[in-house]
Amino acid sequence: MGFKPNHRKKFNISNCLKTQLQEAFEKPITISGQFLGIRNIYHGSFNKRTVIFTSYKNGGAFSLESQLELAHALNLERDMSVLKYRTQALKVTLSKSMYAIPDFLILNNLHNYEVHEVKSNLKSLSNEKIEKLEITKQVLKSFNINYKIFDEIALPSKKEVNSILRIYKNIKNVNIDKDRIIQAQILTEGINKKFTFLLEYLSKYKYSYNEICYLVFYKFIKSNIDI
Where is the TnsA endonuclease N-terminal domain (predicted)? Predict the structure, then answer.
């Protein structure tokens, strides 16, 4: 048994994909601060590793179905070309009897849409599932929407996710101007990029712990986040 993070009424889902795209980013967050997708995700279900992730980029939380989805959400948070994203936001009609609800809908900095799917292992998918993914890709292509599929090989490991989350929690209210970012990049050029070393090194130049977390999280400085 599981429980629903929010009580909600059934969504009225438009059959028009263009309308769904527009409405996906217009839906308000719930009183508990969450963005709800089309499918309800049950937390606490047996043998499920669901998680509620708070997104600073979107100003609200998402229910995610797996640790792999959490890894991908963190990648989207770190990607400066991603303006905002939603989860379980589209119901894509593939045929009279088949539809798909992709994992992530993204709006990028060019104001183009992307749809991302997260799978544990692409090589282990059945022919039926591969065919469904291909049909989904073709349908979205007809709307000029780029469709990408990610699996565990392309995503941060559980250990990496835990390390990234440790610095993520410190960046919410950080504001660094462009000159300070460039200065940090110049200062760290050609030196040890281990996170613990960067902390000690940049603190000598009056960078706070939270500022260093910010620089590393958003990849202004590439670092081995092994903490």
Answer: 80-152
